[in-house]
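ok trying this again, last paste got cut off
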Amino acid sequence: MSECENKTNEVATNGKNAADKNDPELAPDGGWGWVVTFAALCTTFIVDGISFSFGVFYIELLDYFGESRSLTSWIISVLNGTYHLVGPIASISVNIFGSRVTAIAGGIIASVTFGLCVFSPNVWVMIATYGFLGGFGLGLSYLTSIVTVGHYFSRKRALAIGIASCGSGIGAFAMAPLSDFLIQSYGWQGAILIIAGITLNGIPIGAVLRPLEPKSIKNAQITETTNTDNMECNEKSALFDYELLKSPTMILFCVAAFLYDMGLFIPLTYLPDHARNLSLTSQQGTMLISIIGITNTVCRVIAGWVADRKWSNPNLIKAVLLTTGGVATIAVPWFTVFSVMVFYSVVYGLCIAVFVTYHAIIITSLFGKDKLNSAYGILLLALGIPSLVGPPIAGAISDHYGDYNGAFIFAGCMIFASGLLTFPLTLVHKWERQRKQVIYKLESTHL
């Protein structure tokens, strides 16, 4: 056990430090926090709206660049992967420069690179500008907005994060038809330039992410450094809490998230074409995605409200819904009636809502608010790789078998496995706390 772990053992065994208690001065639970929540909602609207609506641009880019479907699809895969993988960098940036600077920088980077990508001479430049640099900017904005909401709320944290994250569902519902309208009116270059302008709203959005009042910050710092022996450890972990990388609880949490994200984008990508193969109309196929988006939006707020109830267990709720969503996705190849497909879309939208909304809530309950930045950064890193490779793997399976059945079974198995690994998370956390306490007592005895 390291020296820093010894000095902070009391924090670890209590599950959260004193700064995370329901102190209205440290976490206002309202006031400017609701402005921050709305700003985060706007961020998730932009980030996930751009991500989910790329399919509208996909066909245009196939014709323009004349490249294969697999190569062209890497544009959005790289964007999704990068905006998750940038999580630790965003976390460090928030700790060095603050939420405002990080979020504003992210908005500027994404907007500028989206604007530059319209001059791409080939698909490789498009991948580098729109995919990598654009995803980098969106990643800075995304993490910053969500963790800032977490710092402004305590008793109402779950509800606030649920409201903030519902921008994702609204974006998925609204950005696709907007993008289609813009392409029809101005071509794909003009449409992306307008979206680059929308992304530039990251500047005013980031500007409202102001830190808590100085008095609150001072009190939080006093609470977190109750004795001078902890000062050196606090300095070492100021930028990023590397001790989390050795936590069995954090590792299990990230593995479960990795498996879920491996299957997350597969139904969103292939459900409309799968519906067409079932002789459903294109409008019905598009409606299925809209239903997922609407359900996702409404249920994020409901999920946040439920998580704030004393009787609720967010981790158990998440585990049950993930396993249910996994089984439902495995069964998609046997769904041949539109009404049944609608029911599946509702279940899957609920599954996404709970998975995303409960990230920050469960992290805070397990590790405390002071570790939220670092833990969320690690989580996004774990989500980056499956976001990057999940859809291409499913595409390869579909090419091999000639339909999407194998892709849905693969996605369902990943989501189901994620749910199974989520069930024992709180037990592993309890074991880890007890283990640290025993080790600390043994080492104290020998001193």
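PB: full thing came through this time. The two ends are 13 Å apart (CA to CA).
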